[in-house]
Amino acid sequence: MKECSHVFVLPEPEPTAQSDTCLECVAAGTHPVQLRMCLECGHVGCCDSSPLRHATGHFKDTGHPIMRTFEPGESWRWCFADTVLV
Q1: Which residue ranges form the domains of the chain, and what is each CATH number?
Q2: Strands (DSSP E) along 4-86, which ranges?
Q3: pLDDT in tens, 69-80
């Protein structure tokens, strides 16, 4: 089973969310389907089901590998670099 090689370098405690929505979607006039938060810096971006995929874009721009769902009642994490649930 594939494992994430990045979980051991995540900051503790988890960063504070930079916003409560995807600000790039707001600026573009689109609506996020679901939100994801970067666990390195707290950036909040929209998921890959959203038209502009800002969470993935944040990973590509910054190299910050792990995000978590920012949806109420959910707690899963995803590593973009290793393409695996954490």
Answers
A1: 7-85 (3.30.40.10)
A2: 35-38, 44-46, 66-69, 77-79, 84-85
A3: 999 999 999 999
CB neighbourhood size of 54 (10 A) = 25
pLDDT in tens, 16-61: 999 999 999 999 999 999 999 999 999 999 999 999 999 999 999 9
Residue spans of beta strands (DSSP E) within 1-86? 35-38, 44-46, 66-69, 77-79, 84-85
How far apart CA 22 and CA 31 sit, in angstroms, is 8
In angstroms, the CA 43 to CA 54 distance is 10
**The whole model's pTM is what?**
0.94
In whole angstroms, give the CA distance from residue 15 to residue 66: 12
